[in-house]
Amino acid sequence: MTITTNSVSQPIAKNPTLLITGATGSIGTALTQLLSQRGIPFRAMVRSPKDAEKFATLAGADVVIGDFNDATSLAQALMGIERAFLLTNSSEQAKSQQLSFVKQAQKAGVRYLVKLSQLAADKGSPVRFLRYHSVVEEAIRESGMDFTFLRPNLFMQGLLGFKDSIIEQGKFFAAIGDARISAIDIRDIADVAVAALTKSGHEGKTYTLTGPQALTHKDMADALSVSLNRQVTFIDVPSEAMRSALLGVGFPIWQADGLLEDYAHYSRNEASFVTPDVQAVTGNSPRTFATFTQDYTPAFS
Predict the structure, then answer these.
(1) What is the domain extent for residue 50?
(2) Does the pLDDT at position 11 exceed 80?
(3) Is residue 294 part of a domain?
(4) Residue 271 — very low, low, confident or very high, per pLDDT cuts 50/70/90?
């Protein structure tokens, strides 16, 4: 089933050759908005007609209902596609879903995949997220399709997961100590993705995407305090306390344990380096954490 939206200011391509998966998530939303603003037609794969409504006024969008667990629907979504952006929800099924997509993309004749991966992806990593991303990267390399891998660091917008405690208590909690991390704004990830999907010269490249500074979580709390004009405090907690808090707000066990592995990785200062990749690809400096806090002040208020 394909749902074609009504164009507002740009003509819609009847047969777009660019597919965006994960189109309703935070990165997918930023990415599709940028494509629309730049007059680049695309097909967005969503899970339901309700999700499709989000694109009803987005110029240049063609929407198809698709399910990563349904090979037939993937084949339909990929029909006529030459380039695709691969992103799934973070779940226990992510590896199998992405491997299925790679297989179907290869069958459909897709020439080029841009995959959202993660900084330090490695099959030997103690972090489950980094292991599965590495396995999918390897499958893409072996598929014969051209590719670009985007490996971002911790998302600045991940702090929105703490917004309730920031609003209600003026505090947020994590098991990271005073380690530094070069977190990145998802809007910069979307900028890089657009460049990789629409311009030549990125084939075969792996981009490690970071913000311009390596900050402690205390530094982040201080920046929030300035933007919100009230005190925000970061409190380091043991891993088990963080796990209990994640489970308490509804995180599945697999994902909660994965996040703890992520934070153990961060706590060892293994994600504290800064790279020039965002500026090299987009021509623009990555956004600072202070810019993020200023732009997202309403969300924390």
Answers:
(1) 2-155+185-208+273-286
(2) no
(3) no
(4) very high
Neighbours of 155 (CB within 10 A): 19
Spatial distance between the Cα atoms of 20 and 18, rounded to a whole number of angstroms = 7
pLDDT in tens, 91-119: 999 999 999 999 999 999 999 999 999 99
Alpha helices in the chain, H assignment, sequence order:
26-37, 49-52, 71-77, 94-108, 128-143, 163-169, 186-198, 217-228, 239-248, 253-267, 277-282, 289-295
Q: How many independent structural domains does the chain possess?
A: 1
pLDDT of 249 reads: 84
The residue whose two tokens read 């200011």 is: 9
Q: What CATH number does the domain containing 21 carry?
A: 3.40.50.720
Reference 48, options 63, 65, 72; nearest CA is 65
Residue 121 lies inside a defined structural domain of this protein: yes
89's tokens: 């929800």
